[in-house]
Amino acid sequence: MILKYRVADHIFAVCGNELCERLSKIGGFAPFQVSEDFPDEFSFHFASDFPVGGNLQYKFDYEDVVGEFGTAGDGFFLRLKPHQEDPLHLWCSWGDTRVYMYGNFSVRLFRFALWIGYGLMTCNKGTIAIHSSCIAANGSAVIFLGESGTGKSTHTRLWRENIPGAFLLNDDSPIVRVFENGNVWVYGSPWSGKTPCYRQERYPLAACVRLSQAPYNKIQKLHVIKGYAALHPSCPPEFAYDERIYSHISATLGLLLKVVPCWHLECLPDADAALLSHNSIFER
Questions:
Q1: Residue 64 — φ and ψ, nearest 5°?
Q2: How do residues 225-250 score in pLDDT, each as one tens digit?
Q3: DSSP states of 56-114 as a string?
Q4: Model's pTM, two decimal places?
Q5: Which residue of 41, 53, 90, 210 could cross-link 78, Cys pair, CB 3.0 to 4.6 Å?
Q6: Can you count the helices (H) and strands (E) in the chain?
Q7: Dihedral sign (CA 200, 186, 101, 44)
Q8: How many Å apart are CA 167 and CA 160, to the nearest integer?
């Protein structure tokens, strides 16, 4: 059994009955499914064993899950270990087009592992999943960056309420892709956090906006160096500790910032903030 999906115009396959049956039950992937006739760039497979050992590069905790990411053999591993459940394991060889998985395919673990595998397979193709909330308006899109609780989702809601025609493209992990011709597009994805928003759509990226809470509304365009500092924390943190991966991430951010402006918005959670950011970006 094979299921194929197109995300940010990359085609990937999920192979084998076990993985496909699990994935068919996860919300958000159906809008991205394509025919088996599409040629795929990389694929996910079930495996029964992985390389032993490895070099841990990044460890994190999310709710009751301990995540570990690092190198193993000539590739990378991911382990997701809930406190009272079996873990899920992922491994891929650098430069290969196959990602192997086994273990606990619960929805939350499997969804996250697919996100990591997708990122590993596409980071050398000008593609980054950026932790942000993305709004579409005026035929293009804007991504709002910031730490959890900064107000990203609140600000995109304010755009929808106050900017005619504005709508949410993705509320957690839109995919940004920089092409060789310099075009920068942002895509909807199957990963949208706690807000179900799964759009198989793309728009030219008009701006990136870093949010800060403040008792006033103020926006300023950032120099390229400060723009890089604003974008970098919103890229997958797992990928920042390996030179092979991060050289691609860094190059993509550099190309993005040549053509897409980055702003810093200090704001209140009100309509005036949404109008200020919209009018500044689109020079209204």
A1: -105, 15
A2: 999 999 999 999 999 999 999 999 99
A3: EEEEEEETTEEEEEEEETTEEEEEEEETTS--EEEEEETT-SEEEEEE---HHHHHHHH
A4: 0.95
A5: 90
A6: 6, 18
A7: positive
A8: 6
